[in-house]
Amino acid sequence: MDVGAGRVYRRTMQAPIEFYFDFSSPYGYLASTRIDAIAARFGRETVWRPILLGAVFKVTGGRPLPTLPLKGDYATRDTARFARLWGVPFRLPSKFPIATQAPARASYWATDRDATLGRRLAGALYHAYFAEDLDIGSPEETAAVAASLGLDRAETLAAVHDPGIKERLRHETDSALARGVFGSPFMIVDGEPFWGADRLDQLERWLSTGGW
Amino acid sequence: MDVGAGRVYRRTMQAPIEFYFDFSSPYGYLASTRIDAIAARFGRETVWRPILLGAVFKVTGGRPLPTLPLKGDYATRDTARFARLWGVPFRLPSKFPIATQAPARASYWATDRDATLGRRLAGALYHAYFAEDLDIGSPEETAAVAASLGLDRAETLAAVHDPGIKERLRHETDSALARGVFGSPFMIVDGEPFWGADRLDQLERWLSTGGW
User: Fold this and answer.
1) Do B60 and A68 touch (CB under 8 A)?
2) 3 state DSSP class of B129
3) From B13's CA, which of A113, A157, A212, B169 has a CA 20 to 30 Å away?
4) Residues of chain B with C-beta less than 8 angstroms from the C-beta of A70
C-alpha cells in the first residue's frame, strides 16, 4: 500500500491574489506598484487581470473620475498626494482617461506566453502611461513598450488586433462583473474582495491573520 | 518699549479639523469614532458639521450606496469588515438610508449651546443608528437620544422644527459643497481635504508631518 505517498507531491498551494485593474485607472497604477511585493511576503502569486472599466460602468452606471463634479478634482489631488506618500513616480497623463483595449490585450497575450513577462509588461505599460505620459491607448505605443522588454513589435501589434485575444478581454471583463468587480483596482484574496489602493493595508492584514 | 509683550498672550492657535458627515453614512460613523482622538493627539479641536448628502448628490449626481449595483453589496461587506477591524459596534440599520434632517438639526442646536455637548450628541445619535438600529430619522427618536444626554426632549423637538436651524443646515450643506465636499466623511485639515474613513491614516500623517 502506498496510498499516502502521493501526498508528498501534492503541495498545499495557496491561491494566488487576483488583481483586477484598468490601465486608465490611477488608483490601479498605485496598487500595481505594491501588489506583487505584498503577495510575495506571504508566499503568494498574483494574477493580473486587466479589464475594461468602460464596459463595467455600462452595467453599474459608474462614470470616469474626471467627469464627476467635485470628486474628479479631489481625485486629481488625492492620487498625486498618494503617489508622493508612496514615493511612486506619477503625473496625470495629458490624455486621460483613455481606451485601454491595446495594453489590456497585449498583456493577456504576453501573459499566455509567460506569466512573469505578462506582469512585467503590464507594469511597464502602467509606468509608461502614469509616469512618462505616453499614450498607451495607441497600439503603436503599446507595442513600443513591449519592444522595450524584448517582445516583437509586429507580433504585439498583431496580438492587439487578434480576434481571439479581443474575445479573451471581453470574457475577462464579463467574468469580473460576474464576480462583483465594479472598480479598479479590485483584489480578491481567498474569495474576499478588496476595492481600492486604500484597501491594500487591510488586504495585507487579511493575509497575515487569515481574516477577521 | 514693550512691543513684544503682546506676543506672550497671542497664542498660535492651530485651526480645528473640520469633520463633515451625513448621519446616514456608515463610513461617516466609522470615522466619527476616531476623529476626536486623532485630533487630540495633535492638540487640535474638531468641528463636527453634519450635512445632507441628498442635497449634495443633487449637484454631483452621486447616489446612495444601496442603490449602486455591485458597489452597494461591496459596501455592505466592507463597512462591516471595517467595523470588526476597528472593534466598533456596527450593524446595518433595518431602515437604510434615512433622511437625516432631525439628527443634523438637533446637533447644530446642541453645538450652539455647547460645542462639546454637540459632539457628544452627534456621537450618541450615530451610535443609536448604527449600533442600536434606532431610526434617528424620526424627530422623536432623535429627541429621545438627546434626552439620554440630559437635554430637554421638548426643546430638542422644537429645535428640529425651528426655521432658523433648518436654514442653518441648508447653509452648512451649501457651504460644504462650495468647499468641494462631495461625500461622507470629509475632513479638512489646514485647507487639505481628505475623503473617507480610509483616509484617516493619511490625515494623521498629515498632522504629524505638516504635509508632503
Assistant:
1) yes
2) helix
3) B169
4) 59-60, 177, 180-182
Omega cis (within 30) before A193: no
Interatomic CA distance for residues A61 and A58, integer angstroms: 6
Strands B186-189 and B192-195: antiparallel
Its ipTM equals 0.92
Candidates B69, B73, B181; nearest CB to A61: B69
Cα distance from N-terminal residue to C-terminal residue, chain B = 41
Q: How far apart are the first and last CA of chain A?
A: 42
Provide the residue type at A165 as one letter: I
Whose cell is 447653509? That residue is: B171
Q: Give dist(CA B140, CA B54) in Å, integer.
A: 22
Q: How far, in whole angstroms, is CA A141 from its chain's centroid?
A: 18
User: CB count, 10 Å around CB of B81?
Assistant: 19
Q: B193 and A77: CB-CB below 8 Å?
A: yes
Percentage with pLDDT > 90 across chain B: 92
Cell digits for A23?
490601465
Query: pLDDT tens across B91-138, in order?
Result: 999 999 999 999 999 999 999 999 999 999 999 999 999 999 999 999
Q: Which residues of A touch B70 (CB under 8 A)?
A: 59-60, 177, 180-182
Identify all chain B residues contacting A27, using CB atoms and an 8 Å cutoff: none
Please name which of A98, A92, A183, A109 lies closest in space to residue A136, comparing C-alpha atoms: A98
Q: Cis omega (within 30 of 0) on the bond before A97?
A: yes
Q: Do the Cβ atoms of B68 and A74 come within 8 Å?
A: no
Residue B33 confidence (pLDDT): 98
Residue of B70, B81, B84 lying closest to A182 (CB–CB): B70
A78, A195, A212 member nearest B85 (Cβ): A212
Cα B152 to Cα A108: distance, rounded to the nearest angstrom: 66
A78: closest CA of chain B, how far (Å): 8
CB B175 within 8 A of CB B5: no
pLDDT tens digits along A6-37: 444 444 578 999 999 999 999 999 999 999 99
Full-model pTM: 0.93
Do the Cβ atoms of B70 and A199 come within 8 Å? Answer: no
A132-184 confidence digits (pLDDT tens): 999 999 999 999 999 999 999 999 999 999 999 999 999 999 999 999 999 99
Cβ of B71 and A183 within 8 Å? yes
